[in-house]
Specification:
- The complex is a heterodimer of chains A (148) and B (423).
- Chain A has 148 residues and is an alpha/beta fold.
- Chain A contains four helices and ten strands, in the order ββββαββαβαβαββ.
- Chain A has one domain: Glucose Oxidase, domain 1.
- In chain B, α3 runs parallel beside α5 and α6 packs across α10.
- Classes of the chains: A alpha/beta (148), B alpha/beta (423).
């Protein structure tokens, strides 16, 4: 079964990837810092407070989340992950995006060769429906297809 | 966003391609949040979160080079977060030191970039830039372009300045342009409380535990906290400011609270009272049992849960001068009770260099050194980022340090017992 969700485009782009899902705030620094320190381009999530994602590879995945939280290095960390090739395939927010994630997505778009397609305001339904491992397709117009 | 003719000219590249990219970034950023226009940055100084020349963050240094080459320089001087290394005052072994030197091999290069960009001075490295001794103290109502979650929280909540939770790099771009998009915590609506938190504890809660609990509950929203002034009073005394500093840092790192109001205490709560609470605000009561549950649920990331701590960090965010004196009294008292003269675990107090410069001339500093305590102005998080340090059993009074590392956060009484030889 496939479902479609319409969100708002923050950074345009198309992407197709497997879902990783967290229903908790995504702490960008805590999640990426250990992998970035070790130049581990799989970006194994090191956020001990997030059992949904702790220990899982973030790179190349469609990260489905409500919002990001934590240190104000968050946007810069996402920018570095993009520039180094360790970024998720896309960021899909159920809620309106926060200032740190928006900064990371926009910095990646303007200042790197790679892009980090980002859609927000997909709604609570989206986060209730999507499960880890589901295939996600993101369209340029903010439509997100989830194949169960 | 509606741009002025000058802003549009910058966007169109009339002042160079680099500044055009800076402007494009900030316009896109403002557009996402429905900003109608830019407003001028009003504070004398900025504050930058990225202070470390860590070798793997090459994209940041390349970006700095591009900005400097394109003459996109900060329009205001700025302070910056703490440096990462202090071999003299923070215990580390030979291998850890080698790892530090490899990890932070770009430190000198990056500090040169910061100087070219507008660094306030060689001692301008602290997360508590707003300490009197450091001197970056914005005025109430001023618009800032700062990052560092704890500093933004303090500036907004305790000083009544106006600053969004800007990301690293974005804060620098605001200082380069001398303007920031008008949205969020810069607006009166964005500063309204959307959570009402009632504190029903029997005693004053530990600041960093209460901050953690509130941050985890409200995430990025604005809480209005009542019931705290039973313990803190109605005046922003230095002691109360220190409490709020630590409370805010925990709320900002465990959640992403950029502004909080404390009833009858913080500037906007004093002026607007409960009128600052938005209709339909969510409610939460916090009592001692609630805090204990939060405390007990913190994950244990030590390889051996019962390992003997090898190091203790106190001062994340950096301590004030009063807090340094207070820790001296508490450690000395606990040592007397334990019948000992020196701490059992290497203990490091962290504070801004200008604060330590004052403190180290005082008898209290000498007394602490005799107890085996050392002082540093580094960021303990950056120490713990060293893979050879991250595995060490470290204890701390900082909930922020707990959030980002394997360090165990302990309540003050437990921490004091451990560092003076108890369990």
């Amino acid at each position: 079964m496939m479902r479609e969700f319409q969100g708002r485009v923050v950074v345009p782009g198309a992407a197709k990837a497997e879902a990783l899902v967290t229903t908790k705030g995504f702490n960008t620094l805590a999640s990426f810092q250990k992998s970035l320190m070790k130049s581990d381009l799989r970006a194994i999530c090191s956020d001990q407070n997030n059992p949904d994602l702790f220990g899982k590879a973030l790179a190349g995945k469609a990260i489905c989340l409500p919002r990001t939280i934590g240190s104000t290095t968050g946007g810069m960390v996402l920018y570095c992950a993009s520039a180094m090739g360790a970024a998720p395939a896309c960021l899909l927010f159920s809620e309106p995006i926060d200032s740190l994630a928006a900064a990371g997505a926009i910095l990646s778009d303007v200042w790197t060769e790679s892009s980090l397609p980002t859609v927000d305001s997909l709604g609570e339904d989206f986060l209730e429906y999507v499960k880890e491992g589901m295939l996600i397709e993101v369209m340029e117009d903010g439509i997100v297809r989830v194949e169960g | 966003m509606q741009l002025t003719a000058d802003e549009r000219a910058i966007l169109n590249g009339e002042q160079g391609e680099t500044l055009a990219k800076v402007m494009k970034t900030m316009v896109l950023y403002g557009d996402v949040f429905g900003a109608s226009h830019f407003v001028p940055v009003e504070s004398e100084f900025g504050h930058i979160v990225t202070s470390f020349g860590i070798s793997v963050m090459k994209p940041v240094y390349s970006l700095m080079d591009e900005l400097i080459a394109g003459n996109a320089i900060s329009s205001q001087k700025f302070t910056v977060d703490p440096r990462p290394m202090d071999f003299k005052n923070v215990p580390s072994n030979l291998l850890q030191n080698i790892a530090f030197k490899v990890m932070y091999s770009k430190q000198k290069v990056y500090e040169k970039q910061l100087q070219q960009m507008g660094l306030l001075g060689d001692d301008a490295f602290s997360c508590t830039c707003y300490m009197e001794e450091v001197g970056n103290i914005p005025e109430e109502g001023q618009v800032l372009s700062w990052a560092e979650s704890s500093a933004v929280s303090y500036a907004n909540s305790v000083l009544g300045a106006r600053c969004n939770r800007n990301s690293g790099i974005i804060e620098l771009f605001g200082s380069i342009l001398g303007k920031v998009p008008y949205f969020g915590l810069l607006t009166p609506e964005g500063r309204e409380a959307t959570w009402e938190i009632d504190i029903q504890t029997n005693n004053l809660p530990e600041a960093q535990l209460l901050g953690s609990a509130i941050g985890l509950a409200v995430q990025e929203e604005v809480p209005y906290v009542s019931g705290l002034n039973r313990f803190l009073g109605d005046e922003l005394t230095p002691e109360v400011r220190d409490y709020l500093k630590d409370f805010g840092a925990a709320a900002a790192s465990n959640g992403s609270v950029g502004l909080y109001h404390v009833e009858n205490l913080t500037p906007e709560a004093k002026k607007q009272g409960r009128g600052i609470i938005r209709e339909g605000a969510k409610k939460l009561t916090i009592d001692d049992a609630y805090l204990q549950e939060i405390y007990d649920a913190y994950p244990d990331l030590w390889e051996k849960a019962d390992a003997e701590p090898k190091l203790c960090f106190i001062g994340c965010p950096h301590l004030s001068l009063d807090q340094l004196h207070s820790w001296k009294e508490k450690i000395a008292r606990q040592l007397r009770v334990a019948g000992k003269k020196k701490v059992a675990i290497p203990t490091v107090l962290c504070a801004a260099k200008p604060v330590l410069d004052v403190f180290e001339k005082r008898a209290a500093a000498k007394a602490l050194k005799q107890m085996g305590v050392t002082f540093t102005s580094i960021c303990p998080l950056m120490y713990m980022n060293n893979p050879l340090c991250s595995k060490m059993p470290v204890i701390t009074s900082s909930n922020k340090l707990r959030t980002y590392t394997s360090a165990h956060y302990l309540k003050e009484s437990e921490l004091l017992a451990r560092i003076t030889g108890g369990k």
